[in-house]
Amino acid sequence: MSDAVLSARTALVTGASSGIGWESARLLAGLGATVLVHARTPAEAGDAVDRLVAAGARRDRLVELAADFAHLSEVAVLAGTVVKHYPALDLLVNNAAVMAPERCTLTDDGNEVSLQVNFLAAHLLAKLLRAPLSAAGDARIVNVSSSLHRTASMNWSDPHRAKRYSRVAAYAQSQLALTMATADMAPAGSGITAVSLNPGLCETALLPLYGRVGGPAAEGAAAVVRLCLPQVPLLNGEYYDGGELAPTAAVAQEERSQKRLVKLADQLVGQAA
Predict the structure, then answer these.
(1) Which helix (H) or strand (E) holds 42?
(2) Using alpha carbons only, how large is the chain's radius of gyration in Å?
(3) Among all residues, which ones are annotated catalytic?
(4) What whole-number distance in Å separates Cα of residue 13 and Cα of residue 35?
(5) Helices of type H across the chain
(6) CB distance 167 to 101 below 8 Å
(7) Cβ contact 77:50 at 8 Å
(8) What string of pLDDT tens digits covers the 273 residues of the chain?
(9) Rounded distance, CA 169 to CA 176, Å?
(10) Which residues is 93 bridged to in the sheet?
């Protein structure tokens, strides 16, 4: 494959300071893309870029961006920066994720932290970046989800699970929400294609939730980047497992549930939108 296949494209990778996000940024940069490298803090973003350059990426193709997704106002500022400087955005890789804590923890925005970081931030970014994504003409959104979404259920009456909390259930719910909301991120006529992906078990900070041995993060990143390639056909709103089309949990395909989730997400992001 040509190392310049993405040379005219700009990609935003969230959670790019480590793991699959960092490896995805490395691979995208290696294919010639301009990569907006997101991390939680400026120091983490700078460190990630330094390591990318040391790994062979061109410094002039890397842009440092910082936002703590536990604060929706910072997500909105990040989106505003991208809109200002990049009128066309070709790729959005929603990879940022955290493990749900042992005890139910709410952000300052009032949301359970894994629901906010893993799903609501991606939902908000997709809304606020719709203009530059649409302007690109054939933009793609790749949501890095998890096979755990199949074990989840949406707790509609208590989405923050404050009454009956389980860290595994909370994390799985965040992945179900991300998978279920994918199609909404690319409405008809927008020129955007959005998909979700299980990158497989990898050695990342989230591995303890699965309790198994994982492969290198680069393997998961290769599955992510494959879906970013213009020559790889994608079906909007669908779910991929390791790069291949796969079934989702049944609830993720229910149109009524999808609409209910989008309405809930809009309420939870509130004024940040």
Answers:
(1) helix 42-54
(2) 17
(3) 171
(4) 7
(5) 19-30, 42-54, 72-85, 113-115, 121-128, 130-136, 167-180, 217-226, 255-269
(6) yes
(7) no
(8) 457 788 889 999 999 999 999 999 999 999 999 999 999 999 999 999 999 999 999 999 999 999 999 999 999 999 999 999 999 999 999 999 998 889 999 999 999 999 999 999 999 999 999 999 999 999 999 999 876 656 667 889 999 999 999 888 999 999 999 999 999 999 999 999 999 998 855 445 544 554 454 566 678 899 999 999 999 999 999 888 877 778 777 777 888 999 999 999 999 998 766
(9) 10
(10) 13, 142
For the stretch 43-46, contacts whose Cβ atoms lie closer than 8 Å and that sit 24 or more positions apart, written own/partner, are 44/17, 45/16, 45/17
Identity of residue 80: G
Q: How many CA atoms lie within 13 A of 65 on its CB side?
A: 29
Q: What is the DSSP letter of 213?
A: -
Closest-CA residue to 14 (of 34, 47, 46, 37): 37
**Cα(61)–Cα(55) distance, rounded to whole angstroms?**
13
- Block residue for tokens 């955290």: 98
**How far is residue 59's CA from residue 103's CA, in Å, rounded to a whole number?**
41
